[in-house]
Write a structure and sequence with these properties.
416 residues; alpha+beta; four-stranded antiparallel beta sheet; 14 helices; 16% strand; elongated; Macrolide_Exporter_MacB
């Protein structure tokens, strides 16, 4: 044990000596390992951070939530030209499903539309996300009201001009003024503010409720009608807990087909998008991004490996005389082999640690600059360290074997 500890100490000294005496050569050789480890860990940290943020954003939602609409969340086998002919879901279908499909816990009818400007007296906030919905929407998506309340069923059905605003909208329009009960203008109409949402922060999908407003969907239906091309309707369905989702989707599909009069020989002219399917789709993308990161970074690691091997071959040549003296004094082949192998691993570790340090610095900067938490996990750091060790072992094994097999007499004579 003491022998290996001495070996490690000497190898560290030789590695540091190589850095001191041949700074440029050593740093250029280590650059490949540094870039390779940096690339892999940076990609893995970015993907892990994105995955964590997505799961955090979706954590309060039921993964069985259904988005019924004419569009699909993921890839579809149906040709695009055919999908473009699908009709939008309607408010009448929302009411039909609500009263006829079993296993529905909550349902909401929503309209997706373009961003708008909103005004209060002489103040204007632009690019506001407009989210008209029925009152059940708050029971389906994780919306938290900090002040006031969300609109109720009576207000939803009658389409009265009441509105719930996000925290940034409230700050932009009212600053330190109490917003509840104030009149604001949207679509050229006056709305009464009845609620302010709790600050959510940046969302992964760029859909933060901080810059959104909610009001009864029937207000916009009455204003624009049901055939306006600027509006994309969707029916959100939250099934009861523990339901068999396949049976639920089958019943929903059959009853909507019957309501629309779709023939048995025709395909469904709507999509049942389940949130769990969307998360599976995201997981697939995350896996592909990780794979691409490994492939790209692999080339840098390959170059880094050759760089370490180059340093070690030069080191063997420079220390041939010393190796001969060590062997003449009784040093075994194994001692010489481990000496150079440890040196290669230490050099590779230095390059890997520099790469991970750069990832850590960039993660800190981006976390503060973008209001998005980049996570450099202990697993990724352990992975980076392990990769550096493996690269050092692979790159140093041949030079180490070469050094260990040197004849002591020839080695001493070569160095003279």
């Amino acid at each position: 044990m003491l022998l290996y500890l001495r070996l490690l100490t000497e190898s560290l000294a030789f590695a540091l000596n190589a850095l001191r005496n041949n700074k440029l050569r050593t740093l250029l050789s280590l650059l490949g390992v540094t870039i390779g480890i940096f690339s892999i860990i940076a990609v893995l940290a970015a993907v892990d951070s994105m995955d964590k943020k997505i799961k955090s954003d979706l954590s309060d939602m039921d993964v069985n939530t259904v988005y019924l609409m004419r569009f699909s969340f993921g890839p579809s086998d149906i040709p695009r030209w055919k999908r473009q002919q699908f009709p939008d879901v309607s408010y009448e279908e929302y009411e039909f499903i609500k009263r006829s499909v079993n296993g529905v816990d909550k349902m909401s009818f929503n309209l997706f539309t373009r961003n708008e400007s909103i005004k209060y007296e002489d103040k204007t906030v632009n690019s506001i996300r407009v989210k008209p919905s029925t009152n059940e929407f708050i029971d389906i998506e994780p919306i938290k009201v900090e002040k006031g309340r969300f609109f109720n069923e009576s207000e939803s059905n009658s389409g009265v001009p009441v509105i719930v605003i996000g925290s940034e909208v409230a700050a932009g329009l009212f600053n330190n003024v109490e917003p509840i009960g104030k009149k604001i203008r949207l679509y050229g109409q006056r709305f009464t503010v009845i609620g302010v949402l709790k600050k959510q922060g940046q969302s992964t999908f760029g859909d933060s409720n901080d810059i959104a407003v909610f009001f009864p969907v029937n207000f916009l239906r009455r204003l624009y009608g049901d055939t306006n091309k600027a509006l994309t309707p969707a029916i959100l369905i939250k099934p009861v807990k523990g339901i068999d989702m396949e049976e639920f989707k089958a019943e929903l599909t059959q009853k909507l087909r019957n309501f629309r009069g779709v023939k048995s020989s025709e395909i469904d002219n709507f999509f049942i998008n389940v949130l769990s399917g969307f998360t599976d789709f995201i997981d697939n993308i995350v896996g592909q991004m990780n794979l691409v990161g490994w492939l790209i970074s692999g080339f840098s690691l390959l170059v880094g490996g050759f760089g370490i091997a180059n340093i070690m071959f030069v080191s063997v040549k420079e220390r041939t005389n010393l190796i001969g003296i060590q062997k003449a004094l009784g040093a075994k082949n194994r001692f010489i082999l481990f000496q150079f192998l440890f040196e290669a691993v230490i050099l590779s570790l230095i390059g890997g640690l520099i790469g991970m340090f750069l990832v850590w610095i960039i993660a800190l900067v981006l976390t503060h600059a973008l209001d998005f938490e980049f996570v450099l996990s202990a697993y990724n750091m352990l992975l980076g360290t392990s990769l550096a060790v493996v690269i050092g072992l692979i790159s140093g094994i041949i030079p180490a074997i070469t050094a260990s097999k040197l004849d002591p007499v020839e080695a001493i004579r070569t160095g003279m």
